[in-house]
Specification:
alpha/beta; globular
Length: 272
C-alpha cells in the first residue's frame, strides 16, 4: 500500500497547502482517492506529482465537511467514471461554531444533486475494492461529542441538533502487516474509531493509523492520555496532521517518539 498526501495544512515537496485533506492511495493494484480537500489544489498537486486522477477507481468522502468535500467538482472533471462513496448520513447540512458565530461548514450546496449519478451512499461495513473497506460509526451517544465540539446538523425544518457524526466513515485497508486505518478527522475520537474497527474485524490487528485527530482545541492532559493509549495499543505507525494541531502533535510526539510522523503535502507512506 502506498499513500500520497495530496493536500494538508502543511506545505511540503514544493507543493501548496490548505486547510483540507486529500490522499491518493494505491492498494493491491487499485487506485483510490480519500477526500478532495477544500478546493482544486489536490488536483494541481496530483498533476505535479505525476499521479493520474483519471486512474482512480473509487473515491471516498470521510465526512460531510467542506475542507474534505469542496474539491469534488474538480475530481469529477478529471475522472469520468469512479463512484464516490459517502456515508448514508451525509448531507449538505453541517454547521460549526467559530467563536460566537455558528457557520455553515458542510459540502458546497448543490454538489450532491449535481453529481447524484456519481455518488453512492454506504451503510454498515462495506467492501469497495478487494481489501478496502468502509466502516461507519456504531457507538451510541456520539451527539454528546458533537455538542461539546460545537458541531451541529440542520434538519429539513432548519432546526439545529448536535452532530452525531452519522456522516463520518473510516477507510480500512488490509495489508500483510495488519490493518491500515485512515480516519481523516476522527471527530468521534480516536479510541472510539479504533475500537469500532477492531469490532468490525475481530482477530485482526491495526498496524497503521493515518489522519487528523481533531485535537487542536483539546486540553493537553487529554492529548497526553491519548498518546499513552496509542503507545500501548499495538499500532506501530501513526501519521497525523490536518486538524490535530501543533501543540497536540508535540505532546503526541513526546509520548510516541519514532512511531509518530507529521503529515504534510507530498508525504508518501508505504506499507507492506
Amino acid at each position: 500500500m502506498r499513500a500520497t498526501i495530496l493536500t494538508d495544512n502543511i506545505e511540503g515537496c514544493g507543493l501548496g497547502a490548505e486547510w483540507g485533506l486529500a490522499i491518493y492511495i494505491e492498494h493491491r493494484g487499485h487506485a483510490l482517492l480519500l477526500d478532495t480537500g477544500a478546493s482544486d489544489l489536490f488536483a494541481k498537486n496530483a498533476a505535479a506529482l505525476g499521479l493520474d486522477l483519471g486512474a482512480v477507481e473509487v473515491g471516498v468522502l470521510s465526512h460531510a465537511h467542506y475542507d474534505h468535500a469542496d474539491g469534488l467538482a474538480a475530481f469529477f472533471a478529471a475522472n469520468g467514471h469512479a463512484p464516490f462513496y459517502l456515508r448514508r448520513g451525509a448531507a449538505e447540512n453541517c454547521f460549526g461554531y467559530h467563536g460566537d458565530s455558528l457557520d455553515y461548514i458542510g459540502i458546497r450546496r448543490g454538489t450532491l444533486a449535481a453529481y447524484a449519478d456519481r455518488i453512492v451512499f454506504a451503510d454498515g461495513v462495506r467492501e469497495i475494492l478487494p481489501g478496502a473497506w468502509l466502516v461507519g460509526h456504531t457507538t451510541p451517544g456520539l451527539a454528546a461529542v458533537g455538542e461539546r465540539a460545537g458541531m451541529f446538523v440542520e434538519d429539513r425544518l432548519s432546526r439545529k441538533r448536535p452532530d452525531d457524526f452519522s456522516h463520518e466513515q473510516t477507510l480500512v485497508l488490509e495489508t500483510d502487516g495488519g490493518l491500515a486505518v485512515f480516519s481523516s478527522c476522527s471527530h468521534a475520537g480516536v479510541p472510539v474509531i479504533l475500537r469500532e474497527v477492531l469490532e468490525a474485524f475481530p482477530g485482526r490487528t491495526i498496524a497503521a493509523l493515518v489522519g487528523g485527530f481533531h485535537l487542536y482545541q483539546t486540553a493537553p492532559e487529554e492529548v497526553r492520555a491519548l498518546g499513552r493509549a496509542l503507545r500501548t495499543s499495538g499500532v506501530s505507525i501513526v501519521v497525523t496532521g490536518h486538524c490535530t494541531g501543533d501543540e497536540a502533535y508535540t505532546i503526541l510526539k513526546e509520548e510516541l517518539g519514532g512511531a509518530l510522523s507529521q503529515m504534510h503535502t507530498g508525504l508518501v507512506l508505504e506499507l507492506d
